[in-house]
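During the practical work, I selected for study one protein's amino acid sequence and its backbone structure tokens, as given directly below:
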Amino acid sequence: MIWRVILGLFLLFMLGPIALVVVFSFGANALIGFPMGGFTLDWYGKLVADTGFHSAFWTSLSAAFSTAILATLTGMLAAIGLMKVTPGATRAVLAALALPVLLPPLVVAIAIVVLFVRGLGLGLGLPVVVLGHILVAQPFVILIVMARLARFDQATVDAARDLGATRLAAFRLVTLPQIASALVGAALVSAAISLDDFIIASFTIGGGNTISTFVWGKMRTTLDPSINAIATILLVLTVGLSALALKVSKYKGQV
């Protein structure tokens, strides 16, 4: 019984603040807190009429879509290559690729600015944001695709080659259909990571806004339930994409 109480308190501590964010987004009171003053959708309507939110929303979607496509493509190629080398080399490469995930996001953001902006001369903007998001999302793509390739029957590819198929044709007709679900799942995870990022975007976006930087800007000037409405939209997008990725990639809690 005591463990159920502890588990309940733990879930309340972890999920309670998130639940309050969603609840307050529907409150009629202009101040975030109780009493809420009734139920309303006015704060969502306010966002619909806010051109600044429109711009930030479409910028975030563009970054997420670009990150998903590019991270999945390059991550798939890296995963296929890593499956052909020795286990020791694979572990070493994966450890190196995982560094952007393990390092503090602030360090990664500074490194991106130093490399792409100061070193390569690229201007701040959406392309640099996408490059930063790829850097963070790609290790997840590689692991997801490698997990699927580990269960892949290489004999089917060998059979296709024996029947006269070229390497490209064997990949397109045999390998790709069998790993397609993992690729879609990896793309959805990459999109969720991109949507959720704040630190890299705030350092590299330049004159525009993503959803996360837009919320930060609003919180510095005012604090009303429209911020909760934005957070709820972002929550639905990221959790929805992650849940869909798990379903599509048929992840069962083990590799």
Notes: The chain has a mean pLDDT of 82.
